[in-house]
Amino acid sequence: MAKAEVKLLGTWSSPFVLRIKWALKMKGVEYDFIEEDLQNKSPLLLKYNPVHKKVPVLVHEGKPIAESLVILEYMDETWKENPILPEDPYQRAMARFWSKFGEEKCLPSIWRVFISQGENTEEALVSASENLKILEGELKGKKFFNGETLGFADISLGWIVNMVILLEEIMELKMIDDQRYPSLSAWMKNFSNFPGIRDSFPPQERMLTKYRILREALLATRGTN
Amino acid sequence: MLTSKATSDPRLPSNIFLHSNFRENTERMAGDLELKLLGSWASPFAMRARIALNLKGVGYELLKEVSGTKSELLLKSNPVYKKIPVLIHHGKPICESMIIVQYIDEVWAAAGPSILPSDPYERAIARFWIVYIDDKWFPSSLRTLRGLNEEAKAEAEEQLANALPLLEDAFPKCSKGKDFFGGETIGYLDIALGCYLGWIKAIEKMTGIKALDEAKTPTLVGWAERFCSGDAVKEVMPEADELIEFTKLIQAIMNAAPGRQNMHVSKNDR
């Protein structure tokens, strides 16, 4: 594999950083992981991502790339092993579309469920389920969004696996059940079982603690809503 | 002038749009390629696809969506977002403007100049700025500045004032001394940012705010002039005055009959 210098600036819990870890693993790229404290950002982070000051940032041969989906595209163009985007231009356009849909629609709607309580949760769940149904429809008959193997859209949407498990446990509800979402439920299992994916998951207990605290804090600041 | 047409349907495929330099080949090709674009004259996003097709000299059929309505073809081709532009190639729809542009670049790689840079790092930089422009705030800022909420306008103005210097700063690094972010020819980032120039000019006229200021961002001002006068751009870039008329018309409709969505507003020759 490439001996070139690769660094990843990230945090142990960020789902966006996780995408990059998965891709690096799939492509067999060795790298140095630099854990950032987002409450106390390092000069390195501020230098490599001055515009947003966020993680992940991939640094390859001294050159920084920010924005996780942009990083994934860069990785696929730089390290040809185990391509994550398909070759066919139409399939590539579809992979990018579903990835964007996940980011723009699914993520905010699932987050809204997470930071809701009481009646607002019902409403937020309805909204999220509309997006989940769309994903279910796209998956139908396929093991992964990419087909038989994991690809760009799967990696982009992989945050759903962790987020939904956490949310269901913390809020004691079922969001993705296998009756309403048979394909999506199967996808979550297939995704987790794909070589290299599960090993990269952040420690479950630590995540549960973190997100429980986060949720309480967010609900508290929003008052009695 | 905008006209309100009660009779003929602008969605009828009456408009085979051909780039003037490649008329002979593309007349034959338009039918063979089976390439349609669902768009509208005022949409900066539709413009992105049209610029890309022009750069590649590819003929296509333009199907104009009417403001306030969504055709059956649109609803069928883009059920998720129900928005333009949609490129339909051999019956298969592609949605989201920058995804369409990249698709065009990949399919017609051999035709015309490359739209995306060839170097992966330069591609990443272009993509980064496109995420910045599109996903963060640009479209919503421009919409706000066109609106009537004064307080929101001040905030939008500030956002624009913060963002443009960053792009001004990025220009020399991307262009490497050439005319465009993409180098010698219009590229991916040029298209992503440049599509807003019609609206930016319209807003400057409507509000008196100088968004693209010679004093603050002279490089971008020079770039904007070059972009707008490019062959692939000038025939699809709406005039500021047309956009101002369009805005006034929409505002009048909203004020006169709240909820009435069916006003038929079209521009014939686009």
UniProtKB/TrEMBL annotation, chain A:
Keywords per UniProt: Transferase
MF GO annotations: glutathione transferase activity
Any single GO CC term annotated in Swiss-Prot or TrEMBL for this entry: cytoplasm
Transmembrane feature ranges: none
Coiled-coil region: none
Span of domain GST C-terminal: 88-211
EC number(s) on file: 2.5.1.18
Every GST N-terminal domain range: 4-83
Alphabetized Pfam families for the sequence: GST_C (PF00043), GST_N (PF02798)
Top-level division of the source organism's lineage: Eukaryota
Presence of the UniProt keyword Transferase in the record: yes
Catalytic activity field: RX + glutathione = an S-substituted glutathione + a halide anion + H(+)
Example GO BP: glutathione metabolic process
PROSITE patterns: GST_CTER (PS50405), GST_NTER (PS50404)
Enzyme class: transferase
Assigned protein family: Belongs to the GST superfamily.
Protein name: glutathione transferase
Biological source species: Elaeis guineensis var. tenera
Gene name per UniProt: LOC105057284
UniProtKB/TrEMBL annotation, chain B:
The protein's name: glutathione transferase
The reaction(s) this protein catalyses: RX + glutathione = an S-substituted glutathione + a halide anion + H(+)
Group of enzyme by EC: transferase
Domain of life: Eukaryota
GO molecular function: glutathione transferase activity
Domain GST C-terminal residue range list: 119-256
InterPro entries cross-referenced by the UniProt entry: Glutathione-S-Trfase_C-like, Glutathione-S-Trfase_C_sf, Glutathione_S-Trfase, Glutathione_S-Trfase_N, GST_C, GST_C_Tau, Omega/Tau-like, Thioredoxin-like_sf
Gene name of this polypeptide: LOC105043364
Entry keyword Transcription regulation: no
Single GO BP term: toxin catabolic process
One GO CC term, this protein: cytoplasm
Membership in a protein family: Belongs to the GST superfamily. Tau family.
EC number(s) stated in the UniProt entry for this protein: 2.5.1.18
Cited PANTHER family: GLUTATHIONE S-TRANSFERASE U17 (PTHR11260:SF615), GLUTATHIONE S-TRANSFERASE, GST, SUPERFAMILY, GST DOMAIN CONTAINING (PTHR11260)
GST N-terminal domain boundaries: 33-112
